[in-house]
Design brief:
The chain is an alpha/beta fold. 35% of the residues lie in helices and 26% in strands. It contains 19 helices and 20 strands. A hairpin with a 2-residue loop joins strand 4 and strand 5. The radius of gyration is 23 Å and the shape is globular.
Length: 548
């Protein structure tokens, strides 16, 4: 019998709770990974997927302890490796793509320096050959202008671009196992399809194995050979991907499949005709990067002549590829950046003016928007400290914080934890709670639900719709997920290379004639799988084929 590449047996991992009692995060966890192919690890946010990946690398969360079990890589128990042996194991034998890019890069070093250091430690390549390998990997990741990316600092790249660079870094030392923790959540669908193809090609070409952690069952249908289903720190079902997705045995797996495959648009929504909240005219923003001693910085247009309006009660989707300018446009709206040209005209609470507490933003990367020294409850209630007294509503701050936490799906006991003790999905819900607590007139969501599993996505989208209907709150929903945009929004704006190339009702998205929009529609993951299970209700098919 062939020895598995990775074997986990009866692994139990505990973390201290706020009450001082150790909680079992992983309980008697057991599974194996074959020596090649793609195995998907799926489950809801907080089920223990990311903690499992950290344990496989010998990188336990703070305060975590493995109380029983073993992790064997080619028969060697990694829990007993010396720190120097662990370092070689992590870099040259196992590559890792983190879910959160904010802690991956040294902000003081250019991307090329990151590649140079990794390759110097884990490969014998000379510096010049190492640079060429790095540039080729950046090209493989479909990054525009790889030389510019190689010379850029991390903050000069969009979230999706940083995610692709992270994947290139993980593959640079040609590992035997790639652990990818939600590697495509920040990517638009055409690039996501390309990256999934590249991962499969890498596995087939090198014979390497992939542990692909995701909540997106459409992605699982596209890439996975085997599936592990995780719930509350245990594997509840495993098997070939085709069998698990088509004929799941465990009730929890069946619920996950139902939630994903039946995710359908609620039908055409009449466009609100309320008063204008904001009018943008000709917004243009250009950055300059790559400056050297005697060379002028190269101009990089981020937003070009963008004009649009958002009305009270309107939910507007902004879709486009990573690096198309969506996040820059949101920063212009928030007045965190000043446009080179163009104007913004605001009308909030009946008064002409600029942004303030009436406009709230949920960041694409919630961890980067939190003070790591603060507990979650203080983070959520931060805005109350700056709210004018005349705008405060009845009730104590603590009561309001607990109420909004419950409404966004956060357990009250999480309010006493620190951000690093929460999963990515939990942090995103905390960021949403912080924004909604101030009852904004305009809520800007920047890829806010990409890290959530489908069940929680539907809950969060339902919560946003409920707030919209109850308060008239306008929403700008920035996303690469066309299904989510069609599900939530009244209207959709399509951004391509800094330009708004289309603005149309969400119900007309499938009828678009623009080649870029059509390419995005055609690359929705899992459409064939949805067709086989739920053709009448599949939002993916509705969008691709124009069904109503």
């Amino acid at each position: 019998m062939t020895q598995p590449l990775l074997e986990v047996r009866d692994l139990t991992l505990t973390l201290p709770s706020t009450a001082g009692i150790d909680d079992d995060i992983l309980t008697q966890l057991s599974f194996t990974l074959p020596g090649r192919g793609v195995t998907a690890l799926i489950g809801e946010s907080g089920s223990g997927k990311s903690v499992t990946a950290q344990a496989l690398l010998g990188m336990l969360p703070r305060g975590g302890a493995i109380t029983s079990g073993s992790i064997r890589f080619k028969g060697e128990n990694i829990l007993k490796l010396h720190p120097r042996q662990l370092q070689r194991y992590r870099g040259s034998r196992v590559g890792y793509v983190f879910q959160d890019t904010s802690g991956t890069f040294d902000p003081l070093h250019r991307i090329g320096r990151h590649f140079a250091e990794l390759l110097a430690i884990h490969t014998p390549l000379p510096r010049a050959e190492g640079k060429e390998r790095a540039l080729q990997l950046l090209r493989d990741m479909q990054l525009p202008e790889p030389e510019r990316v190689y010379d850029a600092y991390p903050h000069e790249l969009s979230g999706g671009m940083r995610q692709r660079v992270q994947l290139a870094l993980a593959l640079a030392a040609e590992p035997e196992l790639l652990i990818a923790d939600e590697p495509t959540t920040a990517l638009d669908m055409p690039v996501q399809a390309d990256i999934l193809r590249l991962i499969r090609q890498w596995s087939a070409r090198t014979g390497g194995a992939v542990l692909f952690i995701t909540h997106d069952l459409g992605v699982v249908a596209e890439i996975a050979d085997e599936v592990l289903v995780m719930r509350r720190g245990m594997i509840v079902e495993s098997g070939p991907a085709a069998r698990v997705l088509q004929r799941p045995d465990h009730p929890y797996t069946r619920q996950l499949v139902e939630d994903y495959a039946s995710f359908s648009a609620p039908g055409a929504k009449p466009l609100p005709d309320g008063p204008l909240v904001v009018v943008a005219s000709g917004l243009t923003k250009t950055y300059r990067t790559g400056r050297r001693w005697l060379r002028r910085a190269a101009p990089v247009p981020a937003v070009r002549e963008a004009s649009f309006a958002i009305r009270r009660g309107e939910m507007v989707g902004l879709i486009g590829e990573s690096g198309s300018g969506k996040s820059t446009l949101s920063r212009l709206l928030l007045e965190l950046e000043r446009p080179d040209r163009g104007t913004l005209e605001w009308s909030l609470a009946g008064e002409e003016g600029t942004v303030g507490p009436s406009v709230q933003w949920v960041h694409q990367d919630p961890f980067a928007s939190f003070d790591p020294r603060w507990r979650v409850g203080r983070i959520i209630g931060e805005g109350l400290d700056y709210q004018p007294r005349r705008n405060r509503v009845p009730g104590s701050a603590a009561e309001r914080i607990r109420a909004i936490a419950r409404e966004t799906g956060l357990s009250p006991d999480l309010l006493d934890r620190y951000p690093h003790e929460l999963s990515g999905g939990m942090r995103q819900r905390a960021a949403l709670a912080r924004a909604l607590l101030l009852e904004p007139r305009l809520l800007i969501l920047d890829e806010s639900f990409a890290s959530l599993d489908m069940t929680l996505q539907r809950q969060m989208l339902g919560l946003i719709r409920s707030w919209n209907e109850r308060t008239g709150m306008a929403v700008l929903f920035i996303t690469h997920d066309l299904r989510a945009a069609a599900h939530l929004c009244h209207r959709v704006m399509v951004m391509y290379r800094g330009e708004l190339v289309e603005q149309l009702p969400a119900s007309d998205l499938s009828a678009s004639d623009h080649p870029y929009t059509k390419r995005m529609l055609a690359s929705i993951p899992g459409a064939r799988w949805a067709a086989e299970r739920y053709e009448p209700d599949s939002i993916a098919l509705n969008l691709i084929h124009g069904k109503e």
